[in-house]
Each structure stands twice: as C-alpha cells, then as structure tokens.
Amino acid sequence: MSNASSSPFDPAMLVKQATQAMQGAFTQPFLQAKTMEPILQAFSQTAQALAADPQGQLSRNFKLYQSQLGLVANLWEAMLGHTTTPVVTPAKDDKRFAHESWNTSYFDLLKQSYLLTSNWLEQSIADARGIDNPTRARAAFYSRVFMEALSPSNFLATNPEALSTALSTNGQSLVQGFKNFMDDLQAGHISMTDYEKFKVGENLATTKGQVVYRNRLIELIQYAPTTKQVHAVPLLICPPWINRFYILDLQAHNSLVKYLVDQGFQVFMVSWKNPTPAYRDTGFEDYIQQGLFAALEATLAITGQPSVNALGYCIGGTMLSTALAIMQAKKDPRIQSATFLTTLTDFSKAGELSIFTDEAQLNALDAKMQADGILDGRSMASTFSLLRSSDLIWSFVINNYLMGKQPFPFDILYWNDDSTCMPAAMHSWYLRKLYLENKLVQPGAITLMDTPIDLRTIALPMYMVTGVNDHITPWASCYKPFAQMVSKSKRFVLTKAGHVAGVVNPPTPEGKPVKRSFWVGSPNSATAESWTATAEQKQDSWWPDYATWLAERAGPQVSAPAKQGNANYKPLCPAPGTYVLEK
After folding, report:
1. pTM of the predicted structure, to 2 decimals
2. Domain extents in the chain
3. What residues are labeled active site?
4. d(C-alpha 73, C-alpha 92), whole Å
C-alpha cells in the first residue's frame, strides 16, 4: 500500500470527525435518552406563558433595549477618554471574563451585551406565569446551558486573551490547540487534567492495606494501622458506586482514609465492581445484601467486634440509610452509629439532576439500558459535566484548544473522569423509585428484604456532612429527613463547598492561612434555614470535629492488629485492589 493511501491525514474526514465529536460531546446528555420531547415541551410552554403576558415581556424587552443603548453610550464616552460605569458586571464566581483584556472597549461591549442578554433570558423564564416548577426549572437549566455555550469566551474571534496569545506565540498556541483537539477527538472526550500524571495505586489510592474479601459486587479493603493503639470498633465506609472509592483516598495530603487511620481508627472500605452487561438484573437490594451487608459481616468477623460505625457517601449513604431502616425493623444492632456525607433521602427537591428524571426521559433511558444491560459510565459523566458546563466543559475548550495549554494535573478531576457503569435494574429502580416517585421518604412506600422502609425509625447516633454549594444533593434537602429521624443524638455539618470539595476537605497545613470554615450543630430547628441561625461556625476543616465525634463512639484503645484479615479472610491482594482498576 502506498504512503499516500495509508496516510491518516484526510482534511475533509478530520473536519467531519471533529464536528461530530464536538456535537456528540455537547448533545449526548440531551440525547442519551433518545428524546428531545421534555426540552421542547419546556421551551414551548414557557414561550406560550410569555406570549400570554405581552405587557410583562414588553417591559423586560424595553429594559434590555435601554441597557444596550447604555452600552453604546459608554463606548462613545470611552472613545472620548471619559471614565464610565459598567452597565452590568459578571458574577463574582464567573471566571470567563477575569482577564484584564475583557475590559478593553470592544471586548467589554461584547462581554456586557452577552451578560445583559443572558440575564434577560433568565429573568424572562423566572417571570413566566402559568407554568409549573419542573417546567420552569427545565427551561431555565437548558437556557443556561445554551447561553453558556454561546459565550464569546468560547470562540477564538471573540476571545481577546486567546487572540493575544496567538499573536504573541506566532500562532503556536493555535497549532498546539489543534493538536490537543485531535488528541481529545481520538480519546473520545475533552481532557480535564493531565492523565499521565496520575495512576491509581501509585500516586492515588496509596494508603496501605489489603483486600480481605471479594464477591461478585465488592472488594473489601482493610487498611493497615499507623498507630500502636487503635479504637476497638471499626469504621466501615460505603462509597457511591457511581464513581470510584478513591475520592476518599486521593493523595496523602487530602486522603480522608489516611487521616482517619492516622487518628487510630480501624478503617474498612468497600470498592465496587464496575458492572458489565452480565450485571443487567443486579438490583438495589443486591447492592445492600452483597455489598453493605457482606462487607459488614466480613468486617465483624475479622475484628471480632459485635458492631461497627458505618459511613456512607452520596448514594452509598442513601443505601446505608435504607439498610439501617431494615436493621431497625429487624432489631439488628451490628451498626452502632452512622455517618452520611452529602446524602439525599428526600428527593422532592433533588437539585439539578431531577431535570433528567421525568417520565419521558426515564422511559427512553430504560429502553437503552435494557438493550445494553448497563448505563455506560461516560453517559453519566457527561450528565454531571453538563450540570456545570461552564466549568467542566467550556473552560477546558478554552484552555486546551483556544489557548493551546495542557490541562493542569488535578487529582479530583482525574477521579471525576474515571467513570463507572450502572446495572440496568439497579439504576432504573433508583431513578424511578427515588428521584421520580420520591418513595424512600414515604413510610412504608418501599419494601426491601421483605421489610417496609421507614427512615424515621432510625435511632442510632448520626453525623451528616453537607455542602452549601452542592448542586447534586442540596443541603436543605439533606437536612429535612435527617432532622425527622427519631435519633436524639445527631450532628449536622454544613461546609462552605460543594459535593466533592466539601468532603475532600483536609485540615490546613501548619503555617498556612486558614481559608475555610463550616457550621455545625444539632438539627433541632424545624427548617434548614432556621438551623443556620443557631449553628456554631468553626474554622478550617470538619475532619477534626468528626474524628472527635467518632472517637467517642469507637470504643476503647486496643493493640493495633499486626496484619490484615484472619484465617477465614486471608488477604487476596494489596490495596487498592483489582475492581477499582477495571474500565
């Protein structure tokens, strides 16, 4: 075969592939359920509502027109050398226009015109009369996504920083940006970090330990002690199966696992199997029995203790709360305290993920999962990225392609892109029974393991951590059912962060300024908002507060075990195990 015919460089084909890749990356979260009906319905109903209020829309349009005239007037004033006051400024957390070049006349006009139009659209949807809240939320969400995609910062011709960089590098930034784009095209996703800088088991998930139990759904890791004495009662951690467990064991400086081990706790960790189509019929009840309860039995057998303290993160916490209700009904005392990290049980206000869980989208998603046996992890990752598209999609388009830079090595973003799959039966049940129907918080509405679930009956000591900026599990939605549980020993924590950063929240190193704080207190107030008025604000990380709380419930100090496992649970391989490495 000739060199010409074997050459991979076909300009027309590359353009076609590039276009399809970008369209796919952006539209996949919309089309993964193979329907645009909910989006179109939301926009149609919103448009009808706005048309039915011509006076209100005329007023908003006139304000937009006046503001745009003000921009033109400011431009003329600036050209005459006069100082002007911006008509509109970006939000404090809007990083798109942070570079000083956005303050020059033409680009400042472009920036402000875009912000005015975005604000006008947002206000129009907020003011629309006669539409229900789910429709309004859906219209607002997709409008924001589309407006973020149309930001002038996303295009070379309208991004002054990208243009300046191209000129100063004699076009090399664009050459490198195109190379980055082609690399991402081949990989099938936008690079969020430098993936070559991280490897699980080498510089991520490095806390020493052994896999001491394995079944078809989990590996159980027992971590090696680092202190001569340990608390007798072990801590069993149940992470979410939507992502890998090592979000709780990233690097030495930000590993919650290492921190707890260094405080003298015996820590066990569930590592979930990345399911294949063969797991299509594995359900939520299987995750409880073959996951949490199997890990619980092994942990107790290895330590010789009658009970454990348990910790659940996100959906792992949702499952833990469900299991606790079953254990309460069966008078099973093997879990003596529970910790929940950003855990939802009341899904009536479930954050922006509820945008994707209407009947039409779930029907189409069910059809796809039944055909495939699983929900591919990349689909889930795309959905989560879409929730913060400006930060998790377009910022990388700008950095990687327009600026020609390499993504910064960031362990959390590496973990974020290390996606896992969902079994069809489990994920369908979870989305329908919890997100769509909100059955879990309704006493007796769900029966698992022949037991009607009533979360209110959970009476053991509990600790809950939430984040004020959490868009996946809104903190106020976490608070309400937690406060209603019958337990009289509850501690509620609200961090100044989000779903991940609020949890991966290590204490500030000695000698460095403390920049974070959190609120903590008993959830005795009727509402989440009223609780903040009585909660105590503390500086730095919540980790030491939790270690103190846990130590009071972790039994006496005993000699640390010399090795992991025992005669019946022999070590199978070193941590982090094998399941976490499966793609």
Report:
1. 0.90
2. 22-181, 209-354+456-581
3. 314
4. 25
